[in-house]
Amino acid sequence: MAAASATERTVIENCAIATVDAGGTEYASGHIVLAGNRIESVGAGGAPGDLANVVRRIDATGHLATPGLVNTHHHFYQWLTRGLATDHNLFDWLVALYPTWARIDEPMAHAAAQGSLAMMARGGVTTAADHHYIHPRGAGDLSGAIVRAARDLGVRFTLARGSMDRGESDGGLPPDFAVESLDDALAATEATVREHHDPSFDAMTRVAVAPCSPFSVSTELMRQGAELARRLGVRLHTHGSETVEEEKFCHELFGMGPTDYFESTGWLGEDVWMAHCVHMNDSDIAAFARTGTGVAHCPSSNARLAAGIARVPDLLAAGVPVGLGVDGTASNESGELHTELRNALLINRLGAHREAALNARRALRLGTYGGAQVLGRAAETGSLEPGKLADLVLWRMDTLAHSSIADPVAALVLGAPAPVTASFVNGRQIVEDGRLLTVDEDAVARSTRDEARRLARTAARG
Predict the structure, then answer these.
(1) C-beta separation of 66 from 57 below 8 A
(2) Where's the Amidohydrolase-related domain (predicted)?
(3) pTM listed for this prediction
(4) Which among 108, 166, 172, 419 counts the fewest CB atoms within 10 Å?
(5) 310-330 in b/e burial notation, b at 16+ Cβ within 10 A?
(6) Residue 1 has pLDDT above 50, yes or no
């Protein structure tokens, strides 16, 4: 960023602020000053009157300012297969949908990524992760298409470059033509990291190494994938302990449960995060806490697929980093992360800890700072603090839906979905009054509809 633009300031005033910093600092009425792509100051009352080069002032009366939401697990391509297999558990759902997913190509992947990102961004997401693990032969540059969609929308992005090398002929679920060989998967993953990963503080795109799951990849892909990630200095991501069927599969195939299997292949550590982690015992949780392994909690998807209730209060009490995930929109059709704040709180209160499981502020922390921790970006985003990246959201709280709720954080988490008046990523506004500024939403809707229909026709032809 040029020196001149770095001094340009945006001043936001007169809003309630939940900083989600280590002390949980909040202001009933305060200000935020953005300088270039960084947060310069946050505090009570109005901004200093002698600020130089203020290019914009926002009167945010009636709003709550929070860090931008951080989505830690998704499958963008599933935007094209929403509403199918609605009464299935995970394994049956995968069997039903893999034959369709195996027909995806580059234009489909790009359209699906646009749809997924657009829906999240207009609902307050500023950082998103996509776990893309289906790479059918001849499908084109799927990773490039997804990265391009995130760049065009202006969302901070982690591509978890997934892979599978266990097809139907090897006892896996996906068709053989939709999986890669061990060597091809490793080579393509390394190429993706080298082409797209940016390790800088204000990076808009990062890449993680992400074999799909224990039941769709070989042990060698898990082991060598971990070695590859650490050689390249990037993070690792996979699915873990999602269902009781997965637990049974691991015991039958490997002679141990998922967590012990992950540890045996090098898949526990501060550079690892896993999706779901529903079926974990005390020793599993202790292993994650000891190693700093993170968890992407996906409450809506877990409920949609009847997977169970993750032990989030116990994970947090043990010191495990936990963030929130939308998961793929074939198992969470709304595709919105802000609804996961509410669902995380409500679903976890159905578990053993009941009303003490989570409160509104802990739910907001899961969706912001917790997600940044899980993605390895807590030093850069996830809270509103001077020096951090200017990723934040202004939620409107003075409409019929929220105006009679005195506590704005409770209103955001427990109330109806709050309108997003403004969302900033890297200091750039990407949403205004609930509409995206970076892409044409109606054009994205048409594109995703057309590509979904084309995918359905292609799959029907077999």
Answers:
(1) no
(2) 65-428
(3) 0.96
(4) 419
(5) bbbbbbbeeebbbbbbbbbbb
(6) no
